[in-house]
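Risk register update: the risk of archive-format incompatibility is retired. Evidence:
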Amino acid sequence: MALPATMATAAPGNACDNRSNNSYDKLLQCVTTEGVLEHMQAFQRIAEESTDPVYPGSRASGTTGYQASVDYVAGLLEDAGYTVTLDEVPITFDYPSTLTQLSPTRAEHPNAIAAGSGYTTVEGRVIPVDLNLEGDRANTSGCQADDFAGLDFTGDQDIALVQRGTCSFEEKATFAEAAGAEAVVIMNQGNTPADDRQGVINPTLGTYQAEGPVVGTSFAAGEALAAPGATARIVLVEPDERIDYNVIAELPGKNADNVVMAGAHLDSVAAGPGINDDGSGSAALLETALLMAKSNTPNTLRFGWWAAEESGLIGSTDYVTGLSPEERERIALYMNYDMVASPNYYLGVYDANESTFPAPVVVPPGSEAIEAVYEGYYTEVGQPYDDSEFSGRSDYQAFIDNGIPSGGLFTGAEVRKTPQQQAIWGGTAGEQFDPCYHLACDDITNYDAEALEVNSDLIAYAMLHFGYSTQAVNGVPGQKVPGRASTLPAPAGPEYTFAGGGGGLAHDHLHDHDVERDSA
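Archived output:
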């Protein structure tokens, strides 16, 4: 068995760069937290140096920060000898909407999220609609036409202010526009300070095509806008169509028709650098690829760094759907690494065998064998692990939709750690697994070194393991990995800390296309 991460002794840098690293011992000796951190630090610098006119300080899709991330990753891989392809991905680049209260006091309400197709400016009276700003704040604001009866929407640019609660955002916007509102602001409910009903919300509208701007904002902003005589300005700018790039790096093996693939998304959200989400997965995968550049595995190795994951899994979906059926058939398996070092982490494995979570998607045959390798490795190095729902809510979705066996690791996003999980993995109960999830503070300080170390080793281990044999996944005969034999123990089994409901990717790690499909 390869040396556990806590026991491995690093080889000199030049030795690691110039040798094959084709055994577990050699490869894991070279995978170090310091090496992975160098890439995470590079992503941080890229974000800091980005002066993008729309989203400075980030690596979001469509920005100069994202393009610099592409250049960094592609350049290192080309220098290492990979065949690198910059795969074009058409994206829709959304400009930030602005919501400004003009009276009775002037205030900018940042991070307002817009829906609808009204790319325009609306400036006018704010008209509150059946709000409840006290007590439990339960309400049916804007859920029926009668809520708008007696309110004057005869002005040229009236803004309806409705509150989250009871019915869908789509219904609220539909009734507001039918009553004559030229724009709609949907404020969060604000019922408890500790849950998700205080901050800015994303007013997804289903099939409804709003005629004017529909903007989601926080409870605090809505409370201020509800003041008597309030006026506001909403500005929406029409999106651009732009081109981003997936970075695809391939190392041919003797078996060109048996491709072992792994990926991580390279983009951040617009709010910040995205160092855990997903600089951690991107960096660990990059370090693995660089150290395996001379590995000469029998199976072909392919690595992907995806564009526009945060905009709805766009890059990975575009890549997989753009492959011919024959090209998709060549991919033996896909492994996904999205957030592998959350600062308040648990160690999660995609639950292909559905031992904790019934999967809401079809799990391709062979996926359980990938899960078994991850769980066997955690067991070997004495690390407790848990299941994360096999949900498709990351870049493996397009792969599983096309029947490609898949697996992955995950250390948590916005779900809060329980006392039971604290007892197992440490950290802080009551706090999110990643307290900076999708926020500006997801910077180079936002990771856990222990999670990064063990998962970086596991990412490398799995790539080498399947680079030599995918027989357990797809039946294709393989070879033993050179060097000291490695027989993983039977998995110890998940901790089942989510068995009571919630957690993992089931209710965690949402993207723009997932967030708040209704207001309930």
